[in-house]
Structure formats: C-alpha cells, structure tokens
Design a protein that fits this description.
single chain, alpha/beta, six-stranded parallel sheet
Length: about 190
C-alpha cells in the first residue's frame, strides 16, 4: 500500500526552481505517485530561472501516469483532507511566506493546507528554504515547525563529495529530500560507500 500512496510536492516562489524540477523528475522516474501544487509566484520564478514556462513542464509531467496536479487555489482537492492518505510532502523551494503561513496555521492556499494536513496527521513534512541570510523571524518560524515535527532541509549543499558540476550540487539537495521521504535513490553515494 505504501508504494501506491502519493507524495506531495509543493513549489513556492523562492529561488531554486531547479530543485523542484529535479525532485519531481526523480520521483516520477521511480514510479512514485506524485502530486504537485505550484504557487503563482513559483510560476514566475520557474520562467525566470529555467527559461521555460511551468505549463510546458506540466505538460511533460502529465504524460506520466504517476503524476497528478492540482491548482494552488483548489481547496476541494483530495490532499486538503486528512482522510486522503499520503506518504508526506516536500515544499521545494519553500518561500519564507510559506514557512511563516504554515508555522502559524494560516492556510491561504492548497500548499499551506496540504502542509497543515501533514502536520496534524503526523505525516512527514519537509521544507526546503532557499533564503540567505535568515532573520530571527525566519529562524523562529523554522524552529516552531521543527518542534511540530517538520524537517527543515535548507538548500545548502555539502562539498565533501567534491562536486564538479552544478548538477552535483542539485543532486546533493534532491538526494537529501528523497532520503527524508524514504525514497531509495542512487543520486550520489552514501557516506562510506
């Protein structure tokens, strides 16, 4: 049953669209049922950073039978309810607006609501902030979420694996996201391999 239960990926308007793209691509490559919700701000960042519209990427993803998409304002989507089973959610990248909204239980959109459901149902919630530096307010919100059971996974790659390409840095973060969601991968060797 676990293998057929979807993972939600929320994409918000922080920098780091390539992390979301690669995370969804990796999940779909492993036939993991994947539900995506993308904020309006994220669509703008997507175009700016990747040079392609989010809608063009969406068309490609929709060819995969493991893929589902819900509009950000569709509060009637199944993922808005705790009765709909999921394996958890990753918000990648996670804007500070999204972090603050979730930390305070404010559900302005489907991304916020799906995250709130993960917290209340004690499901895995991984937030990937791409902000620097963090203010005290950002840190307080992230601490609050950590205390609620969420995982804060900053988009801060390590360098001990001696990356030689930007893709190596992206893979480092995506591998950590998949690790937190319990998804097997071979993006990079584990320590000691």
């Amino acid at each position: 049953m676990q293998a057929k239960t979807p993972i939600i990926v929320g994409i918000t308007g922080a920098s780091g669209a390539v992390l979301a793209l690669n995370a969804v691509d990796e999940l779909l490559a492993r036939d993991v049922p994947t539900v995506v919700v993308c904020s309006n701000s994220a669509r703008l960042v997507w175009q700016d950073e990747l040079g392609v519209s989010f809608n063009d990427t969406l068309v490609d993803w929709q060819e995969n039978p493991s893929f589902t998409f819900y509009p950000v304002n569709d509060m009637r989507a199944p993922i808005a309810s705790g009765t709909y089973p999921t394996r958890g959610m990753a918000i990648v990248p996670a804007s500070m607006n999204t972090v603050a909204s979730i930390a305070h239980g404010v559900t302005h959109n489907l991304i916020h609501r799906a995250a709130d459901v993960c917290l209340k149902e004690r499901r895995r919630l991984v937030l990937v902030p791409r902000e620097t530096p963090f203010s005290a307010i950002h840190l307080e919100h992230m601490l609050s979420l950590t205390r609620m059971g969420a995982v804060i996974l900053p988009a801060a790659p390590g360098f001990y694996h001696q990356p030689t390409r930007i893709d190596d840095l992206i893979d480092f973060i995506v591998a950590r996201i998949l690790n937190q969601l319990g998804i097997e991968h071979r993006l990079m060797p584990r320590w000691g391999e």
